[in-house]
Amino acid sequence: VINTGRVDYNHFHLRNVNLSLNAEIDLNKPVYEAYIKHFSFYERNSGLVLKNLELDAIADTTGVVLNNLYAETSKCEFDVTALIKNINFFGEKPDIYKANLVLNIDAKKFNINELSKFLPSDLPVSGVYAYKISADGKINDLTVNVPNLSSGKSEISFKGYIKNITNDNRYIKVNFKKSK
């Protein structure tokens, strides 16, 4: 197997896998809890090194909560919290369109080239960024706030609205607050 610089999903080769996981799952109850205390590995094809992943997750009949998701690779470090409310994944047909979404990301260091390892082609941007993002709303009506996105000596902040992301009537509006 050749190191291609990308994850090859047909030949996924993990080395040095280390996982510490606690879970509370009773298949007779609609409440699942999982706590990843540490997860690390080296993926041979892409060269990706996951130094640490931590996560607290709870799913029940009212939604899903992801707390304290922390990820660190050799080129990235970020924290994520996410909440999906008003959806029952244990029900017959969960309707994601009616669910309320809340997402917060705090990326101290995010290397776009590291993300490209997971995609079949290169992205039109590159570089290392630090940013904070918060988003809330429904999947087809999201408000996104980026109070700080920086790379090198450049900084920008903006607020945006994303409408109808799942159909052909997509609409994105961005209001820039400041840049330097």
What are the SSEs and their pairings?
Elements: E1 14-25, E2 32-43, E3 49-60, E4 63-73, E5 77-85, E6 100-111, H1 112-116, E7 128-138, E8 141-151, E9 154-163, E10 171-179
Antiparallel strand pairs: 1-2, 2-3, 3-4, 4-5, 5-6, 6-7, 7-8, 8-9, 9-10
Give a description of the structure.
The chain is mainly β and 180 residues long. It is 3% helix and 61% strand. It has one helix and ten strands. A ten-stranded antiparallel beta sheet has the order 1-2-3-4-5-6-7-8-9-10. It starts with 13 loop residues before the first strand and ends with a strand.
Number of beta strands: 10
Report the average pLDDT across residues. 91
Radius of gyration: 18 Å
What fraction of the residues are assigned to beta strands by DSSP? Answer: over 45%
Order of helices and strands: EEEEEEHEEEE
Shape: globular
Largest sheet: 10 strands, antiparallel
- Distance from N terminus to C terminus (CA atoms, Å) equals 45 Å
Number of helices: 1
Structural class: mainly beta
Q: In which order are the strands of the major sheet placed?
A: 1-2-3-4-5-6-7-8-9-10
| Low-confidence runs | none
Oligomer: single chain
Helix share bin? under 10%
List descriptors.
61% strand, 3% helix, mainly beta, 1 helix, 10 strands, 180 residues, ten-stranded antiparallel sheet, globular
